[in-house]
Input
Amino acid sequence: MGAQPTVTDVAGVAGVSRQTVSNVLNAPELVRPETRERVQAAIHSLGYRPHASARRLRTQKSSTIGIRLDPITQDGISGSILDRFLHALTEQADRQGLRVLLFTATGPEDEIEQFRRLSDAADVDAFVLTSTFHGDPRTEWLIENGRSFVTFGRPWGIDDMTDPEHLWVDVDGRAGVREATAHLLSRGGPRIGFIGWPSGSGTGDDRRAGWLEAMRAGSGLTEEELRLLDAAVEDVVPNGADAVRRLEQRAGRLDGVVCVSDSLALGALTATAGRIPVVGYDDTPVAEALGFSSVAQQLDEVAAGVLELLTGAHGGRVQRGDPVTDPRHRLVTPRLVVRDGPSLIGDRTL
Amino acid sequence: MGAQPTVTDVAGVAGVSRQTVSNVLNAPELVRPETRERVQAAIHSLGYRPHASARRLRTQKSSTIGIRLDPITQDGISGSILDRFLHALTEQADRQGLRVLLFTATGPEDEIEQFRRLSDAADVDAFVLTSTFHGDPRTEWLIENGRSFVTFGRPWGIDDMTDPEHLWVDVDGRAGVREATAHLLSRGGPRIGFIGWPSGSGTGDDRRAGWLEAMRAGSGLTEEELRLLDAAVEDVVPNGADAVRRLEQRAGRLDGVVCVSDSLALGALTATAGRIPVVGYDDTPVAEALGFSSVAQQLDEVAAGVLELLTGAHGGRVQRGDPVTDPRHRLVTPRLVVRDGPSLIGDRTL
Output
C-alpha cells in the first residue's frame, strides 16, 4: 500500500484503536493525556501526516465524483431508489460545477481496485458510496489511503458510527417506520403487522426497530403477540403476498401492515385487496400510481448533504460523536406520504 | 464557432444540401459528376477537412463517454427505461475500459453548451444522446463540430434517417406493437384498442403505426371502426384508465388493448380489472410484478450497438442508406413478453 504511513500504522505502534488516533487528531480533549502522548509519539516516529485537507474535495470546474452503478436488479420497484438518488446527486453536483463519473464493480475488492485506478489517474477527486454494510472494506481502504469520500448509508458498526474520518448521510428509517406504524395505530385497531427483511442488514433491522418502538408504545400488545405480527422475507413482490397471508393465519386478524419496501407492500396489497391498509417504504412511482401510503426517503436532501460534506460546505466547528449535531454525520428524517388507499384498482374499489 | 469550416459552409458555397456534401465524402458514386465537382471545389477553396477519423472514439483506458441525465419525472414507471439503458451502457462500457460521465442540461441549447465545455476540456471523448426528436439541434451541432456521438433514437426526419454522419441505434417500436397486436388478435375477438400518445412524437407515431398495420392485416375492421379504437393521451397512469373507459363507450366492446407504455397499461388494467387482456410497452418491473404482457426494448442489445458504433467495432465497408444493412444505423427488434395476466391482484383474480 505504498510507503505512506496510515492511521492503522499509527494505531498499531501506539497500541490503541484507529478511533483513538482519530480522536487525538480531531478532538484531543477527549483523550487521556497519557494516551494522547503515546499516539503523538507514534505519529512523530512514523512521520504520519493526516489527510484532512487532502480528503476534502476542492470545488472547481473539473472536480469529478465517482460512483458505482450496479446492474439492474430483477425486481426494480424499490431497487430504483438508488437511481433516483443518482439523478438528485447529478443534478445538484452539476449546479456546483461538479461532474459524476460512473463505474461498475463485481464486489467490494473490485470496487477498491477501481478506487485505486480512478484516483491514481486523477480522473476522480472523490467517491460517493452506497449500500454500506458493517465492516465495509471499502471505507476502510478509502480512509487508510486518504481519499475523499462520503457514504449514503451509515457504517452500521457500533464502534464506527461516530468515526470522524467517515463522513456519511443516511435516512432515519427507524423514525420513518415508527411514524408509519403510529399512523396506522391511530387509524384503527392495534394489530399492525410488519413485513421486513431477514435480520442482519443494518437498514432492515433499523426499520424493524421503528415498528417495534411504535407498537410497544401504542398497541398494548404483549411481546409474544408482537412476535406473531413480525415477518421476515426476501425483497420480491410475491413474498409480500405470502407474508401477509401467513401473518393473518398466525395472528388471527390484522388491522394493517407496514412493509420495509414498496415491493413487499405491493405484494401485501395484492393479497389483501384493500381489506386492510398497507404502508410501503421508498415512495416509488408504483406507490403513487396505485395510491398506497409510503415512506419517502427525501433523496434531494440526502444528495444535498452528501455534496455539502464532500465540498466542506458544512463548515464551522464540529460537535463530535452525536449524529444529530455532528455535521459530519447526517441523519435525514423521511416523510410519510399518506394516500387514501388503492381505490384505483378495479371499478370495484380494491 | 471558430475558423474551422463545416459541412454547412461547404454546402452553402456549393449550393447543395448538407446531405449531398456527406454523400460526396462518403458515397461519391451516388452523386452526379457535375455536383460532385462543385462540392469538391468548395471543399478545396474553404480548406474543409472531414472529421471522419476524429469522430471515431479511440478505445483507450481513459476514454470517457458523456451522457445527459434528466431530473426524475413524476411518473417514473415507463420513464425508468432510460435508467435501465444507463445501467446497461455503463456495465458494457466498463468492460471495454470506457467510462461514463453524467451531466445535466436545462434544454437542447444548454446541452450543446455542455458538449462544448466537456469536449473543449477534453473530459469527454464522445457523447451518447437520448430522446432525439425531428430537427434536433444537438446532433446538428455535433456533426458540424466534428464530435464523436451516437444517439439512442432515430433522427425522425425523412431526409436525415440515412445521414451517414449520424450514427444511431433505435428499437423498432412499430414491429413490437405490431407483434403485440397480432398476439391479441390471435387470442380472441378483433376489437383490439390502442392507447397511445398524442401524435407528433416520432416514437409514439411509430408505435401507433404498428397497431394500425396489424389491425388492417388481421382484424377485418373498417377504417372508421379502427378510428374508434384509437385513443391518444399524455403518459400518466390515470389517463390509461380514462382512455380505456372512453374506448369502451365509443367502440361498444373491446377484446383487448395495447398500450404505448406500461404506465398507461397499468391505468387500463386498473379500470378493466382483468376483464380483457392488456399489453404494455417497456416491460418494466411493474409489468413483471403485476403479471401483464409487455414489449421489452432489449436494452442490452441497444447499449452494445451504441458502443460498437462509438468504437468503430462495426467495421467493414458500409452499405449506405438502408437502416437494416447500414451498420451505422441499427434497428433493434423488441421482444413481446407474454404473461398470463394479472392473476396476482386480489385473492379473487383481478
User: Anything to note?
Assistant: The longest strand of chain B covers residues 64-68.
